[in-house]
Specification:
alpha/beta, Nuclear Transport Factor 2, Chain: A, 14% strand, globular, binds uridine-5'-diphosphate, binds 1,5-anhydro-D-arabino-hex-1-enitol
Length: 810
């Protein structure tokens, strides 16, 4: 990048750069973000009659394209340039066009100065740097492989096994000796004590099973030859039939002789080491019914519940395949959430709730201690819960140990609070920790770290961002739903990437907050619950009375308590959307788009399932604002007769059927969010067979292949959205198969890439491989964990205690 800057300065572009800099200086904003920069540059090109410079690939245009932020300081400009995914360079440009490279520290100081929080005379600020702790672990080199951690780790571990066979086989042997279930030894017993014995006995066992298969059959059940295998050192866990045991032993044999990444993955994935899983989601309103649609309880509840069900099913399948059924092995999955005494008609005040359709998956609710009954008896926002989490983890540990009758084998955290609790529990119980972010608030709120002090009363970001840093570094592995959640796209930074370097003025500087190239990151997207969401054409699985009832609710029912608006002509194409009524979900943007387009109104109706119909019914300020705005738009564009707004909270069965009813009417689904971390409704709509138009900002960019199995839209360009929908409708009118084609490819896309079966298989395989990696590199992580603990006690905890004082004095 410095060459690019130099070449601008050494060429004719120099004058343009000078004029541009003076335009920037004339701008009232001292801190320009990417959108501001692009707008300013476009205006600049217009003013100086430089035709579409951005597309002309001039050096100046390139520089602007890669510039994420510009900070004005005195007469200097500081350019923060991201020329490659996950890497950043910072330059200071002086008015006489000299260029100086700036260090991370200088950049953070500059940002502090901007908010009047730079006080060098008072001593230095704490600098948080996690980089030295990643020295021990391998890092991915190519950014395109970020998020494929496990593939990388398998290659790394198998090459170690190849290069240092003695040491690594010893680790493998020790690892195999480790596994037990309720005191019953699995895999190998003390007849195998050395590597030599392991290698020899594997060959003997292979010979024995080959013989067995020749005389009997591959299907011979394990129980029939269990004792013979035990005599040569092998305990249960290798397989349920002779053929499966042989397969597993062969993989191990090959791994010992010539280690290859596929063998390692395949072998470790078969090790029966996970029977008990905890999914931590503390902030509450976690239930199976009546909880969705409130602020904070959207996709995360759906995701965790589906994940729990599917993990339990997968664990049962794995136990069966490993040949452990005879040992009465019953896997158990617990969702750990918050018990809320004033549960407002939900089951959130119930300690234990069995998850429907499972044998042994539960929601375990543990209350926050009664520090302050006003807060701890009631639901409180996720932004307020930080003070209660440490003691919550202590209480939860006790209850988990009792429920499992021992330690769990894997702890999965969800969102900032769940990940912090997962860290505390994992540290205490010495269990593998996995993190899932869902949505990191840091990048969701503009300048959330720079102005954290102003926002602290409302959001308490100082605790949330500290918790995020601690938990993401402590985690053995992190799963993200998309690649861009980690490192963004070529022109936007990722959610995890935003933790790499930032200032919390007057609190600390983060110079290296997370190693984005670490193999701990793995992209494992969620699926959809296929029993509720399935293609509209599967008529035999649909309940006719539900279909009729929902059709009435969607198109004709008059019930002002829950539905607003009557349709003049219900035969028009329905444009459907369903989301919480948050500002960022931008349902009002979609209404505005519909209002502005007469053409759309001619051929379509707009049908929304969103929030509540009355301001008085909402206790969320954002939701109240959106309700008012939506009414205003309906009146402004006189959408009466063309819009239906359902302020209902649907059951899962109904939300599945509602997409299908819209598909029966050859409708479309639009998800117009300003940003969407992933977007479960998109999968739900697609699998139902609804052609889907979704925001290009966030996860949907990876789910939808534009024009193939859905369409991407820019939620800030309303005219363009309307045109894209109209173009689609035109095509459907010209070609009666077009709607079907997109519908079919949408369905296909979900079944091929976004199922819970794929998700749970991958997650469990990761848990095993990272469990092995954790085992072999444990001593190397202790220094990192000690550092994290120090930050927890010295930064997080005092702040959490101060917040508690505030709560108590309310
Ligand atoms: N949902 C619902 N009723 C509503 C709004 C949403 O059942 O009124 C469900 C929806 O079907 C989906 C989830 O809530 O399963 C929303 O998840 P998504 O990932 O799309 O968004 P989030 O709310 O998590 O931001
Ligand atoms: C939170 C979000 O904002 C959504 O985009 C996700 O789909 C959901 O969590 C589940 O991960």
């Amino acid at each position: 990048m410095s060459e690019l800057l130099q070449s601008i300065i050494n060429s004719e572009d120099k004058n343009d750069l000078r004029s541009l800099m003076s335009e920037i200086r004339a701008n009232e904003k001292q801190y320009l973000l990417r959108n501001d920069i692009l707008n300013l540059y476009n205006e600049f090109c217009h003013k100086y009659q430089k035709k579409s410079e951005l597309s002309q690939n001039s050096n100046l245009s390139k520089l602007i394209y890669y510039t994420q932020e510009i900070i004005q300081e005195d007469s200097n400009l500081c350019f923060i340039i991201r020329s490659k995914i996950a890497s950043q360079e910072v330059y200071r440009l002086t008015p006489d066009l000299s260029i100086e490279s700036m260090s991370v520290q200088e950049l953070l100081d500059t940002r502090d100065r901007l908010v009047n929080c730079y006080h060098p005379n008072e001593g230095n600020l704490l600098e948080i740097d996690f980089a030295p702790f990643y020295d021990y672990s391998p890092v991915i080199r190519d950014p395109k492989n970020i998020g494929k951690g496990v593939e990388f780790l398998n290659r790394y571990l198998s090459s170690k096994l190849f290069a240092e066979p003695k040491q690594w086989l010893e680790s493998l042997l020790n690892f195999l000796q480790l596994h037990q279930y309720n005191g019953i030894q699995l895999l190998i017993n003390d007849r195998i004590q050395t590597q030599q014995q392991l290698s020899e006995q594997v060959k003997s066992a292979i010979a024995f099973i080959n013989n067995l298969i020749n005389t009997r059959a591959g299907e011979e059940p394990y129980e029939q030859f269990r004792f013979q295998l035990q005599m040569i050192g092998f305990e249960p866990g290798w397989g349920n039939t002779a053929a499966r045991v042989l397969e597993t032993l062969n993989i191990l044999d090959e791994l010992i002789d010539s280690p290859a990444p596929q063998n390692l993955e395949e072998f470790i994935s078969r090790i029966p080491m996970i029977f008990r899983i905890v999914l931590v989601s503390p902030h509450g309103w976690f239930g199976q019914e009546g909880v969705l649609g409130r602020p904070d309880t959207g996709g995360q509840v759906v995701y965790v519940l589906d994940q729990a069900k599917n993990l339990e099913a997968q664990l049962k399948e794995d136990v069966e395949l490993a040949g452990l059924s005879g040992l009465n092995v019953i896997p158990k999955v617990i969702i750990l959430s918050r018990l809320i005494p004033n549960s407002e008609g939900t089951l959130c005040n119930q300690r234990l709730e069995k998850i429907y359709g499972t044998e042994n998956a539960w929601i375990l609710r543990v209350p926050f201690r009664e520090f302050n009954p006003n807060m701890t008896q009631n639901w409180i926002s996720r932004f307020e819960i930080w003070s209660y989490l440490e003691t919550y983890a202590i209480d939860a540990e006790r209850q988990l140990l009792a429920e499992f009758q021992g330690r769990p084998d894997l702890i999965v955290g969800n969102y900032s609070d769940g990940n912090l609790v997962a860290f505390l529990l994992s540290r205490k119980m010495k269990v593998t920790q996995c993190n899932i972010a869902h949505a990191l608030e840091k990048s969701k709120y503009l300048f959330s770290n720079l102005y954290w002090q102003d926002l602290e009363d409302k959001y308490h970001f100082s605790m949330q961002f500290t918790a995020d840093l601690l938990a993401m570094n402590a985690a053995n592995f992190i799963i993200s739903s998309t690649y861009q959640e980690i490192v963004g796209t070529p022109d936007s930074i990722g959610q995890y990437e935003s933790y790499k370097c930032f200032t919390m003025p007057d609190l600390y500087h983060v110079v290296n907050g997370i190693e984005l190239f670490s193999p701990k990151f793995n992209v494992v997207p969620p699926g959809v619950s296929e029993s509720y969401y399935f293609p509209y054409s599967r008529n035999q699985e649909r309940v006719e009375s539900d279909r009729r009832r929902l059709e009435e609710i969607l198109f004709t029912l008059e019930d002002s308590t829950q539905i607003y608006g009557k349709l003049d002509d219900s035969s028009k194409y329905p444009i459907f959307s369903m989301a919480r009524l948050d500002r960022i979900k931008n349902i009002t943007g979609l209404a505005e788009c519909f209002g502005q387009s007469q053409e759309l109104q001619k051929c379509c109706n707009l049908i929304l399932v969103a929030g509540k119909l009355r301001v008085e019914e909402s206790d969320d300020s954002e939701e109240r604002d959106e309700i008012i705005k939506l009414y205003h738009i309906i009146d402004k564009y006189d959408l009466h007769g063309k819009i239906r707004w359902l302020g209902v909270r649907l059951s899962k069965t109904d939300s599945g059927e509602i997409y299908r009813v819209i598909a029966d009417h050859q409708g479309i689904f639009v998800q117009p969010a300003l940003f969407e971390a992933f977007g479960l409704t998109i999968l739900e709509a697609m699998i139902s067979g609804l052609p889907t138009f979704a925001t290009q900002f966030g996860g949907p960019l990876e789910i939808i292949q534009n024009g193939v199995n859905g369409f991407l839209i820019n939620p800030t360009n309303l005219e363009e959205i309307a045109n894209k929908i109209l173009e689609f409708i035109n095509k459907c009118q010209q070609n009666s198969n077009y709607w079907q084609e997109i519908s079919r490819s949408g369905i296909q896309r979900v079944y091929s890439s976004y199922t819970w079966k794929i998700h749970t298989n991958k997650l469990l395989s990761l848990a095993r491989i990272y469990g092995f990696w954790n085992f072999t590199s444990k001593q190397n992580r202790e220094d990192l964990l000690r550092y994290i603990e120090a930050l927890f006690y010295l930064i997080y905890k005092p702040r959490a205690q101060a917040l508690l004082q505030q709560h108590n004095s309310r």
